[in-house]
Design goal:
86 residues, alpha+beta, three-stranded mixed β-sheet, two-stranded antiparallel sheet, elongated
Amino acid sequence: MADNISDAILDAILRTDPKARVACEALVKTGMVVLAGEITSDAQVDYSQVTRETILDIGYDDDAIGFDGRHSAVVLALTEQSLRQF
């Protein structure tokens, strides 16, 4: 699930900003997803929505099976990448 979420975030960003720089990882625990990393982009992406849609798309849509994308917490720990010139 974590790889699917990270890939979906990257795809959503690159759709509108092909020059974006993205280093985004997902950590998944029952009922919670943490997105962490660095993103530099002009794209306007709702990371929580992309995360939830991805969870639902792969079939996690019921708390009885351990995960429901509609009710999962999504924690964002994303910053812009630093621009370091040498």
